[in-house]
Write a structure and sequence with these properties.
5 helices; mainly alpha
Length: 88
């Protein structure tokens, strides 16, 4: 049981590190936004594109962070497939 748990933790850590390496090396801006409009994750390119200080966005409200009130709800209208998980 302990050995299996250790292996699971190593596997998850490897997957997380691999994903982080891929996302951080992308030139495209990537962000994960929660239903409360808070930035759960964003890569460096996302912050550069929006001219935000590096490493300052995680946990912040996207609309306020970008200086554009009600920006996120307007984006949702154009990308409804991105919000399908909210409906479940």
């Amino acid at each position: 049981m302990v050995a299996q748990l250790g292996q699971t933790i190593r596997t998850l850590t490897d997957e997380r590190n691999r994903s982080a390496a891929i996302l951080s090396s992308m030139v495209e801006g990537v962000a994960v936004i929660g239903s409360d409009e808070r930035i759960l994750y964003c890569n460096q390119a996302f912050e550069q594109i929006l001219e935000l200080p590096q490493g300052s966005s995680q946990g912040k409200n996207l609309s306020r962070r970008c200086g554009r009130p009600n920006w996120f709800p307007r984006c949702v209208r154009f990308f409804p497939e991105a919000t399908k998980s909210r409906e479940k």
